[in-house]
Amino acid sequence: MQVIGLCSLAGLFATGCSKDVPPASITIFAAASAGEALREIADRYREVTGQQVMINAAATSTLAKQLIEGAPGDLFLSADESWMDKVEAAGQLRPGSRHDLLGNDLVVVGAKNAAPFDLKAGDPPASLLAAKRIAVADPAHVPAGRYATEALRSMGWLDVVAPKLLSAPDVRAALRLVEMGEADLGIVYLTDSRGSETTALLARFPAESHSPILYPVAITKTAREGSEAFLTFLTGDVARGIFAKAGFRVLETP
Description:
The chain has 2 domains: 2-103 and 214-250, D-Maltodextrin-Binding Protein, domain 2; 106-209, D-Maltodextrin-Binding Protein, domain 2 (3-Layer(aba) Sandwich), CATH 3.40.190.10. By secondary structure, it is α/β, with parallel strands linked by helices. The strands form 2 sheets. It has a 7-stranded mixed beta sheet. Strands 8-7-9-6-10 form a 5-stranded mixed beta sheet, sandwiched between helices. The protein is 36% helix and 23% strand. Helix 2 packs antiparallel against helix 11 and helix 3 runs parallel beside helix 4 (81-89). The protein has helices spanning 9-12, 35-49, 60-68, 81-89, 126-130, 143-155, 158-161, 171-179, 190-194, 227-234, 237-246, and strands spanning 2-4, 25-31, 52-58, 75-77, 99-103, 106-111, 134-137, 165-168, 185-189, 199-204, 214-219, 249-250.
């Protein structure tokens, strides 16, 4: 878990932090693909308000299950609608706080020196056929993996490609498999490809080949004071600029 702006170690064993920094912090459970952008946003938020923000970034499915079981998070940023639906159905969200914040795109990444290629319905591209291993987030549990298999099925390539798929715990782990040379290609989000210095974006899946990739955000039922203010900050100009720089499509605020 990444911690933003904690008090000094000594302060953890005292009665609280200094008067200049509010002792209370808030925690946002966030899809792994949004972790980097949120860390930058949390830094900017602390500069403006003095409020500490802790980022718990992991696979959406893992975070959703934790929240359903009562884990102490204040906000949830999911990488798809269905897991947010499950958390909402479990009564763990504050009514009326949920809305779609971001969008993303599905891409193929590979080695820096690899040639780009097009993804069009018909015969699979030679690059997909030549790859021995293609890294994806676990399709059984992780939204990015589900989008990947949905896109491959839509293009008519899933049966051919399925034996090559190498499952990872989350989309960032899938990217790391390509970066380490454990996989020839990876199917990840556009935002993940933007943050990699050792891989290249080789192809984009057509938007119509998979369900819309949306990131809903909501405040939890047990959220602490300050959660509403941070949610408002996430929809403001500073956060929108950081999300856009990372490659997200920033949606209109409700």
